Amino acid sequence: MDHGNMDMGSNATCTHAMTWNWNTIGTCFLAESWRIENEGTFAASCIGVFLLVICLEFLRRLGKEYDSFILRQFQQYLAAQARASKVEGSCCSDEPAPGPQVVTFRATPVQQLIRSVIHAMAFGIAYILMLIAMAFNGYIIISIIVGAGVGKFLCDWMIAKVVVVGDSNQPNKGAAASLEEPSVCCG
Prior knowledge:
Distance between the termini: 32 Å
């Protein structure tokens, strides 16, 4: 199957290179309707792809922030329950205070729906970017890479809570555990 020149019903043709290329005019991305007719259209396409990658990084950050938000809400609920149970209990009780307890949190259906919508949007954008990158156009791939870097810089500034321990010989295991690994592919 020849992908070099496809007839679009007019004199205009799309260049579909299946190898690395630096084509600008005549290149099509995703569909024949996204045909580059001049340098301005190509520049707008590169800027649009750059901004789309930043939107992807924003959605990834939004997902993390929403997860933290619903977890904080649950922790506040547990703290309020603990305070209420202390008020109800007797101050002169001989029973020892209970040790640490583990409580499992499960998102409500509405919270899970919101999490799923954010994830689906990020996944969809990542998939579209992958398809755009499959044009193997060097300028577009550079726009994707630079957009990913700028998006990470703007949207995913690392903030971590570090617990300081009195003994400097003991490594702080909690700080490293609170950092997340970056996603390897597509979301």
